[in-house]
């Protein structure tokens, strides 16, 4: 995995810098869970069209609910789980049709399709780039 090699190279580079020579190392454990969206008998291109990536999620408008009135203004009820928005919930809005859902509900929904749960529109923009971008600080 390229990410693991890059992370190890980054850590070695940082530890080799003179200004970091007197610092104590902190062990870090990274756990990955790899999920595939390809269904049995499905072409890879079709699965990639449905794949939801971090870039696609970043492209969705998200709002943290600060009060009940604000939450009700965003959506009366999540059409995926049939629950009303509560204070602290994160609400995601689809790119094209602007339908709103609990963020965690929409992510689960988008694992199986790229369509909005309410209408036939695509839930997120296809112009977004596949893959992950990591910022090393």
Describe the fold and architecture.
By secondary structure, this protein is α+β, with helices and mostly antiparallel strands. It has a domain of 73 residues: 2-Layer Sandwich (Herpes Virus-1). 31% of the residues lie in helices and 8% in strands. It contains 5 helices and 3 strands. The protein has a 3-stranded antiparallel beta sheet with strand order 1-2-3. A hairpin with a 6-residue loop joins strand 2 and strand 3. The longest helix is centred in the first third of the chain and has 15 residues. The radius of gyration is 20 Å and the shape is flat. The C terminus is likely disordered.
Indicate the proportion of strand residues.
5-15%
Tally of alpha and pi helices: 5
Which structural class is indicated by helix and strand composition? alpha+beta
Low-pLDDT stretches are 126-137
Radius of gyration: 20 Å
Numbering strands along the chain, what is their spatial order in the largest sheet? 1-2-3
Question: What is the helix content?
Answer: 25-40%
Average pLDDT figure: 76
CATH topology of the domain at 53-125: Herpes Virus-1
Listing every helix as H and every strand as E from the N terminus to the C terminus, the arrangement reads HHHEHEEH
Number of strands: 3
Briefly, what CATH class of the domain at 53-125?
A: Alpha Beta
CATH homologous group name of the domain at 53-125: Zinc/RING finger domain, C3HC4 (zinc finger)
Sheet bearing the most strands, described?
3 strands, antiparallel
Coarse shape:
flat
The CATH architecture of the domain at 53-125: 2-Layer Sandwich
**In angstroms, what separates the terminal alpha carbons?**
21 Å
GO cellular component, one term: nucleus
Organism: Phtheirospermum japonicum
Pathway: Protein modification; protein ubiquitination
Domain RING-type: 78-119
């Amino acid at each position: 995995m390229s990410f693991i090699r890059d992370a190890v190279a980054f850590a070695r580079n940082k530890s080799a810098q003179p200004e970091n020579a007197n610092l104590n190392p902190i062990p870090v454990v990274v756990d990955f869970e790899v999920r595939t969206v390809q269904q049995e008998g499905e072409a890879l291109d079709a699965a990639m069209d449905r794949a939801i990536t971090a870039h696609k999620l970043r492209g969705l408008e998200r709002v943290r609910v600060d009060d009940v009135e604000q939450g009700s203004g965003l959506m009366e009820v999540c059409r995926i789980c049939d629950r009303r928005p509560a204070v602290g919930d994160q609400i995601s809005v689809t790119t094209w049709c602007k339908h709103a859902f609990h963020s965690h509900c929409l992510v689960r929904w988008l694992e199986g399709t790229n369509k909005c749960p309410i209408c036939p529109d695509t839930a997120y923009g296809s112009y977004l780039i596949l893959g992950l971008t990591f910022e090393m600080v």
